[in-house]
């Protein structure tokens, strides 16, 4: 992945896989993971199907769309949609059953 060196990038750790990748603020978490060879669950890539749903354990994100396919309660509980989420800090995200995916 080639990014502008002046562009902020954050480190994202994926648990329980233990993989990490850099996420510049110009890419969604899903896009950034793909550029670095980290395979995450995906389907629609527009925030509606919820295939990529995971928990944000540390850090903060913003969304590319006004209202992603999450309820207010899900957001409070820490659920995010990486296909439309952009890192605002270093992150730890967690998927159940992530062992099935590869780096």
TrEMBL record:
<dbReference type="InterPro" id="IPR036010">
    <property type="entry name" value="2Fe-2S_ferredoxin-like_sf"/>
</dbReference>
<protein>
    <submittedName>
        <fullName>2Fe-2S iron-sulfur cluster binding domain-containing protein</fullName>
    </submittedName>
</protein>
<dbReference type="GO" id="GO:0051537">
    <property type="term" value="F:2 iron, 2 sulfur cluster binding"/>
</dbReference>
<dbReference type="GO" id="GO:0046872">
    <property type="term" value="F:metal ion binding"/>
</dbReference>
<keyword id="KW-0479">Metal-binding</keyword>
<keyword id="KW-0813">Transport</keyword>
<dbReference type="InterPro" id="IPR001041">
    <property type="entry name" value="2Fe-2S_ferredoxin-type"/>
</dbReference>
<comment type="similarity">
    <text>Belongs to the 2Fe2S plant-type ferredoxin family.</text>
</comment>
<keyword id="KW-0411">Iron-sulfur</keyword>
<dbReference type="Pfam" id="PF00111">
    <property type="entry name" value="Fer2"/>
</dbReference>
<keyword id="KW-0408">Iron</keyword>
<keyword id="KW-0249">Electron transport</keyword>
<keyword id="KW-0001">2Fe-2S</keyword>
<feature type="domain" description="2Fe-2S ferredoxin-type">
    <location>
        <begin position="10"/>
        <end position="99"/>
    </location>
</feature>
<dbReference type="InterPro" id="IPR012675">
    <property type="entry name" value="Beta-grasp_dom_sf"/>
</dbReference>
